[in-house]
Every structure is written in C-alpha cells, then in structure tokens.
Design goal:
It is found in: Cytoplasm; Membrane, Clathrin-coated pit; Cell junction, Focal adhesion; Cell projection, Axon. The protein is of the alpha+beta class and about 210 residues long. The chain has helices at about 5-15, 25, 90-105, 120-130, 190, and strands spanning about 35-40, 50-60, 60-65, 70-75, 75-85, 110-115, 135, 140-145.
C-alpha cells in the first residue's frame, strides 16, 4: 500500500466516509491533481513525513444559480482535503490551499467543493470569506460569486491525451520525493514536481 493510499484512508476516516475517495490507483486513471505537503525535517524518518494533501480536478457539472436556472459548467473542484489531525490549526491547510490556488490560477469563489465537511466549510469561511452558498441538488457546494460577471470557471472539454502522457500528480512547495510512488525516480510525481523546499518552521490549518 502506498503513502497515497494511507492518506486516502485517513481522510475517509476523518470525514466518516464509507470508503476512501483518494488512492494511487484512482490517481493513475483520472486527470485529478494531488498536492502533497511534506516535512523533510522530521528526525529519524529519512524521507520526511506527510503533513496532508489536497486533491482537485475539473468536472462537468450542472449547477443552479440564484434564480434556479441550470448551468452547465466545468469548474475546478475540491475533491479531497486532509491535514493530519496532530498538525491541524498550525496553518498547514492554508499554506497547501493557497499554493493550489496560485498554481491553478483560480479564485476561491470559482471553486466547486464536493461534499464538504463542516470543518472544511469553516476553513473556507475563515480564510476566504466564503460564507454564502448557492443551494444545489447534487453533492457539490458553490459560493456566492461563482457566477459573478458571467465568468463562471467554465473550461472546454479537451481531447483525451494518450495514457502515457497523463501526469496526474502535482506537488506543493514542500517537496514530495519520488518514494511516494514506490521509490521510482521517474514516476508521475517527479514529472509534475513544483518545488522550492520549505521547512516545517513556516507557520502556515485545515
């Protein structure tokens, strides 16, 4: 079992989900992007410790606006978000989420969130002032401003790339070493790395 599988199980347990929604096998068969936050300064570990992860991806959705009209959009969606329980309320969640926003070039109100927990809703309210939601009939939550200026985050569907070109993993500024993918230096994680190693002393919560 990979580190990604272990994190997915921990996230599912924290959210009281019947089964994990994040796993290494799923990441290899979809276009989702996984941001992993690591601490390389953990003594004795040799490889560092995983602090948490954030999974996002574009999904084609039908969402309602304030007038009850159906809109077909393909926004960037928050699909899974987990910070280890012992490291919550230390700013790590904010650091990870902010890095994702900058990397994906998206504003918080443009996101759709899949089945957010109350803890995640509080996080978004506290750090991004996302308070007013627009009620939906599916499991996704969108916020006031999603349709602002008629510029909802719609993305045209692209032709599916050949399987060998799909690179589903991405990294945060805390470098995620290739051992996360069975120790293979040429694995997908290495191919999509966005790193500039930070230290755990940075005060950045889920």
């Amino acid at each position: 079992m990979t580190v990604i599988d272990e994190m997915g199980k921990a996230s599912a347990k924290a959210q009281n989900l019947p089964a994990p929604i994040t796993s290494a096998s799923r990441m290899q068969t979809n276009r989702h992007v996984l941001y992993i936050l690591m601490d390389h300064d953990v003594k004795g570990s040799g490889k560092g410790a995983v602090i948490g992860f954030l999974k996002v991806g574009y999904k084609k959705l039908f969402v309602l606006d304030r007038h009850g009209a159906h809109n077909e959009v393909e926004p960037l969606c928050v699909l899974d978000f987990y910070i280890h329980e012992s490291l919550q309320r230390h700013g790590y969640g904010k650091e990870l989420f902010q890095h994702m926003l900058q990397s994906e070039r998206v504003e918080p109100h443009q996101l759709a969130v899949d089945r957010p927990s109350e803890k995640l809703l509080c996080f978004l309210r506290k750090h991004y002032n996302l308070k007013e939601t627009i009620s939906q009939v599916n499991n996704f939550v969108i916020f006031e401003g999603f349709f602002a200026n008629q510029h909802a985050p719609v993305r045209k569907l692209l032709p599916k790339r050949p399987e060998e070109e799909i690179k589903p993993y991405s990294l945060t500024d805390r470098e995620c070493a290739h051992h996360l993918l069975n120790g293979e230096p040429g694995g997908p994680a290495a191919q999509r790395r966005r790193t500039s190693s930070l230290t755990r002393s940075d005060n950045t919560s889920h």
